[in-house]
Each structure stands twice: as structure tokens, then as C-alpha cells.
Design brief:
single chain, mainly alpha
């Protein structure tokens, strides 16, 4: 520190250097996960999740307004996601296939009518199947008519899946917009069709890191829909939660 000061570095220089050192040290560590509210008026939990929570925690430990601040909350969300996937195994299968085979990137390139699929390499048979799928989508205005009516925000993912097992990805928590299914939902639908056709070539086995991410995503989608998200902050980084009219976001950096 004295050596740096002797070289007439400013306080701002030292601060940036310290931030750089901490950032480099944190690269080898898992990120910090922060639960944030995404709804004016607070987080809304599904009845099914609250029942699950009561089966795992003591009733005296559960307060809807503060439960998300408990260190056990995110692991419980992941456990709940695993519970949902055990009940509906095709959700896990579809998610695995989308992530492993990069179906979102493949379909995006085809739908945007790019002449090249870019730097990514795809299985030729998969490309052919995807082209057939996108042709069918164009006949139904980008699959909008094929998807069920936009799900009620009060219907949780599990209940919606029971009603629409082949279109579970149409649930509002899966990023659907009012203009139609998003690229992620379309990729999930394509994966569902691939696996329904008994095409075991595209079925993906377990992977601890990837499946943990899926369980967390499915858990929070069923538990709170779009009213809550889990954001990630680089390890060792200083962060704060910025709040405006109940909606929160994480702020970090130099």
C-alpha cells in the first residue's frame, strides 16, 4: 500500500485495484444468491409451496413477509423444484434437452432466417427436425395458436401442468410475453416434441450442476411465479438491494 502511495496513485486508483484483486479471488468461488421481489405489493407464494414449506419448517418459523430472508429458503426452493420434477418428470427432461442441445440458439437462428447457424455446431438430424418444427410454427403464427390461453397469474406451475401437460411451458412463469411465446418457451416445446417421439438420442441424463439450476428455476416458478427472482452476485463482491415501490434489484460493482 505504501509503495503504491509512493508512486502517487490516487485513492480512486487504489480502490479500483482492490476491487480488481477481490474480483479475481472471487472467480473461483460460487456466486452469492440473492432473493428479490419483482412485484409491487410483495411476493405472492402459491398454496402448494406454502404447504411444502410447512412440511419442512416449523410453523413458528414461517412468516410470508420474511421467509425469503432465511438462509434455508433457497435450498428449500431447490428441494421444492426437485419435488415438482419428480411429480412431472417430463419437465426435467425437457429442460435438460434444451440446455444440453442448445435448442434455444438453434431455433433462434432458424426463426431469424439466418443463412448460417453461427459458430455453434448442431447435429444435422436435429437441424432437420428443428426446420420442420419452425415450418409448422410459421403456419400457426409462431406457435401462438398452438399454446393454451395465457395462464392466470394465480395458477401455479404445478396446477397448470396438470391441466396442460403437453404445454406446461406455456405457464406465465416461463417468460411468456403478451406478444406470444418467448424463445425459451418455444425451445421447451420443441424439446417436448422431440422426447415425445421416443427419440432417445436427444434424451439427456443427470448432471448435478445443471440439474441444480433447473430445480431452482422450477421451484421458484411454481412457488412465486414472476413475483420473485433469484439474482446472482460475484463472490466477495459488495452488493446492495435497490428498491423502488416494492420492486427490488441487486446493485454491485466498483
Amino acid at each position: 500500500m505504501k509503495a503504491l502511495l509512493a508512486e502517487k496513485h490516487t485513492h480512486h486508483d487504489l480502490k479500483l485495484r482492490l476491487y480488481q484483486v477481490v474480483a479475481e479471488e472471487g472467480q473461483s468461488l460460487p456466486p452469492i444468491k440473492v432473493v428479490c421481489c419483482r412485484r409491487h405489493g410483495g411476493v405472492v407464494y402459491s398454496k402448494d409451496f406454502m404447504n411444502f414449506l410447512h412440511s419442512r419448517w416449523q410453523s413458528s418459523e414461517i412468516d410470508r413477509n420474511y421467509v425469503r430472508y432465511d438462509s434455508r429458503f433457497i435450498p428449500t426452493i431447490s428441494e421444492y423444484g426437485s419435488f415438482i420434477c419428480d411429480k412431472f418428470p417430463f419437465i426435467l427432461d425437457d429442460m435438460r434437452t434444451v440446455h444440453t442441445w442448445k435448442l434455444r440458439d438453434l431455433l433462434h437462428n432458424l426463426l431469424s432466417k439466418q443463412k448460417s447457424l453461427g459458430a455453434l455446431e448442431f447435429d444435422p438430424d436435429l437441424v432437420a427436425k428443428a426446420m420442420s418444427f419452425t415450418d409448422q410454427m410459421s403456419e400457426t403464427k409462431h406457435c401462438w395458436k398452438a399454446f393454451p390461453k395465457h395462464s392466470d397469474s394465480e395458477t401455479n406451475l404445478g396446477a397448470f401442468t396438470e391441466m396442460h401437460p403437453d404445454f406446461w411451458m406455456a405457464h406465465h412463469s416461463m417468460d411468456r410475453s403478451y406478444f406470444g411465446p418467448t424463445s425459451f418457451q418455444v425451445a421447451l416445446r420443441f424439446a417436448h416434441i422431440l422426447l415425445q417421439d421416443s427419440d432417445t438420442h436427444y434424451r439427456v441424463g443427470p448432471d448435478e450442476a445443471r440439474d441444480a439450476m433447473i430445480y431452482e428455476r422450477i421451484g421458484i416458478s411454481d412457488a412465486a411465479g414472476t413475483t420473485m427472482v433469484i439474482e446472482e452476485v460475484p463472490a466477495l463482491a459488495h452488493y446492495s438491494i435497490d428498491e423502488y415501490d416494492g420492486v427490488e434489484s441487486v446493485v454491485y460493482g466498483s
